[in-house]
Amino acid sequence: MGLSRRSFLTAGGLLVVGAGATAAGVETGVLPGRSWAYSHLGIDGEDGTIPDVAPGRMVSGAFMSEARLGERCGWSIAYPPGERGNLPVVVVLHGRGNDHTSAFADLGLDRFLADAVRRGAEPFAIASVDGGETYWHARDNGEDAGSMVVDEFIPLLGGRGLETRRVGVLGWSMGGYGALLLASRLGPDRVFAVVAESPALWPRYEDTAPGAYDDEADFADAVVWGEQDRLSGIPVRIDCGESDPFYGYTRTYVDGFADDPAGGFQLGDHDVGYWRRMAPDQLRFLADSLASR
After folding, report:
1. How far apart are CA 246 and CA 179, in angstroms?
2. Signal peptide: which range, if any (predicted)?
């Protein structure tokens, strides 16, 4: 016998949660009953499709990071077709379990960039770097992926001829949180726009995923809750799927802005299909922020 929508949902979530949903709950620290139900009901929205266009040039390399305690950090830079010198750059922060290749191999941001510029968007480069799984902030063992970005990766990009006095920042999941944290620390003199999609946000340390923070003091030091005013002067876009396990927390965080950020809440889950679907609007937002600065 088939199950109705009411059979799936209760006021607090699911009557039954499958193994896949439980695994996702372990990763995010939020039991994704809503996410599992929306997916099985087919109301997550369509998956985004990577444009069938030729990307511009991509260069890759690696460096040993002092800030990450000697870790080898791979990186890639995607240029738009017909690249110009001294391009602005958007730094991409990946999610947990990903690396610098995920922005291009999984999300297809190099192809989305090529398509955006072909349609008239202000050109810029996209640069991604390995940040490990420490949620882009300083940890008790001395590793600091955020400092790696600011003190090592951005200077590397400048050394390759990119304009780094002010950068854009984009991230998803763990990287979405990292993008908000990094932009709030750098401020409008260093960041021309920030995009956070499906940000891994928790209001309390007790709610966080294992390994996201060392302890309550670490959580307090790297908090973005109640710090929205530190993004004042920076164009902000935040997107989150309505069946994403972080949906409720993200909506509460967005409500804490004096002026509503761009973006919003759409049909979608915490997955690549949603992130691909949002990529064209997010890259256009970054390009428009560049054009108006």
Report:
1. 16
2. 1-23
